[in-house]
Design a protein that fits this description.
elongated, mainly alpha, 3 helices
Length: 73
């Protein structure tokens, strides 16, 4: 496994992806299927962005409730 493939697996692991996702990405890399790898990574990035947006909505709701509670003090 090349250094790039190790970095790729580590990055996906740090981002919370499954071993299956890491293996799929490494297999694409090893097979020289760079365009498919880039597409795969972009899809995973979009998934993370969606999770970020969902978390931001939850934080916004908490901020609203905090402001409402502070008004009651």
């Amino acid at each position: 496994m090349s250094d790039y493939e190790k970095d790729l697996a580590s990055c996906l692991s740090d981002a919370g992806f499954t071993k299956e996702a890491m293996s799929a990405a490494v297999r694409l890399c090893e097979a020289g299927r760079k365009e498919e790898l880039v597409r795969f990574l972009r899809v995973k990035r979009c998934d993370l962005i969606e999770e970020l947006h969902e978390s931001q909505k939850k934080i916004d709701r908490f901020d609203y409730m905090i402001r409402q509670a502070e008004k009651q003090i």
